[in-house]
Specification:
Blueprint lengths: L1 E3 L5 E6 L18 E5 L7 H4 L1 E2 L9 E5 L12 E11 L8 E10 L8 E4 L10 E6 L9 H9 L1 H18 L4 H24 L7 H24 L1 H23 L7 H21 L1 H25 L5 H9 L8 H28 L3 H10 L1
Parallel strand pairs: 7-9
Antiparallel strand pairs: 1-2, 2-3, 3-4, 5-6, 6-7, 8-9
Helix pairs in contact: 3-4, 3-8, 3-10, 4-5, 4-6, 6-7, 6-8, 7-8, 8-10
Length: about 375
């Protein structure tokens, strides 16, 4: 895109939303999403005259949801604004310290290929060009803001629940398999119900008492599902294997295979590992139960910790970015959490294996124990 500075100099702006600019457009060997250079400069002078408008790989992005304003033909619909900044000082205008670039991303479901990009001269300045982008990718595909705002506002409660349930599965998942199945199926049902309600029905401004009421109803329905699942232990453990295997596939994709950047890879990994653990549970019941409950327990425990500490990327956001081919990497904090999950998994599996050896493998003994409970 081209624009003119207040001094009359013509500038050319190069940018890419999804990945770093190609080698020929790198400015001082930095992997940025956007650079700017005068149109009168030759390619040989590019490195000497170019200006970075984002930091390395665009990590300084700030996303803001702009609410709808106006009515009728004057209405500006809800949309996204992306703001980038650098540490390169700009002395061209007062009150602006650094170079940067901004985009307003609007929805048009009919635009699937070439986006409509327009320079917003009213909001641009010599240090920060401002573009309006209209495309299908700017359309809302599912509203999860309500879920995460509700969870974040009550992070202490949800974190404690995740940590307690995680510890229970890590240590007593096999010993108390019926309660473990009931709790896991209850929790899964609650998440599924809330997800579909928020995406399909509820608004962002729903009252908090409505959300708590729906959570209570979801827990009751989840409890019913968990109760029946615990009555058929072998079937419950098969689905437990599906859940744990799918979790392994999800985590592997987020750690390694996200580089392929295709949602089909995610589904294949989840299906392969899920079916593998589910089928193996038929033949190696006790060991698969230990593995599955340790996986689920370590994930829930670490996820609870992350609600306190932050730095764990939202799973639904990751999925959407993979689906749109926009996932370029994961934050370093994610890998720290993954290391914690692996350590907890081995600790939980070790403890449960020790309990199993001490009690023996008798199925009769196991069911006599449940009768006593």
């Amino acid at each position: 895109m081209q624009r003119k500075l207040s001094s009359g100099i013509d500038m050319t702006t190069f940018f890419d939303f999804c990945r770093s600019l190609p080698e020929t457009k790198k400015c001082r060997d930095e992997s940025t999403l956007s650079v700017e250079v005068g149109t009168d400069f030759s390619p040989e002078e590019f490195q000497a005259q170019c200006i970075n408008l984002t930091k390395n790989k665009g990590k300084n992005q700030e996303a803001t949801l702009i609410e709808a304003v106006g009515e009728g033909e004057f209405e500006i619909k809800e949309h996204l604004r992306l703001d980038f900044s650098t540490e390169e000082e700009c002395n061209l205008i007062p009150d602006v310290d650094y170079y940067g670039i901004s985009f307003e991303v609007f929805c048009d479901a009919s635009l699937e290929k070439e986006p409509a990009i327009v320079l917003n001269e009213a909001l641009s300045n010599d240090c920060n060009p401002y573009f309006s982008v209209t495309h299908k990718s700017g359309c809302m595909v599912g509203d999860l803001k309500g879920i995460w705002r509700f969870v974040e506002d009550n992070a202490f409660i949800f974190a404690i629940v995740f940590i307690v349930v995680g510890l229970f599965n890590l240590i007593l998942g096999r010993k108390l398999i019926k309660p473990a199945i009931a709790i896991i199926f209850c929790l899964s049902t609650v998440v599924a119900i809330l997800f579909f309600l928020y995406v399909l029905i509820l608004q962002n401004d729903s009252k908090e008492w409505v959300l708590w009421l729906l959570l209570a109803v979801s827990v009751i329905l989840g409890g019913i599902v968990g109760f029946f699942a615990s009555k058929f232990v072998r079937i419950g453990v098969f689905f437990l294997g599906l859940w744990a295997g799918a979790g392994i596939g999800l985590l592997l994709n987020n750690m390694v295979f996200y580089k392929i950047n295709h949602v089909a890879v995610l589904w294949v990994l989840m299906a392969v590992f899920g079916l593998t653990l589910g089928i193996l549970s038929i033949f190696w019941y006790h060991y698969i139960v230990i593995v599955c409950t340790s996986i689920i327990g370590s994930f829930l425990f670490i996820r609870g910790i992350s609600l306190f500490a932050g730095g764990y990327p939202n799973e639904f956001t990751i999925y959407e970015r993979i689906r749109d081919g926009e996932l370029n990497g994961m934050p370093w904090t994610f890998y720290i959490y993954m290391i914690g999950m692996v350590i907890l998994f081995f600790i939980g599996a070790f403890i449960q294996h020790k309990i199993k050896k001490r009690e023996g493998d008798s199925e009769d003994k196991k069911y006599d124990y449940y009768k006593r409970v």
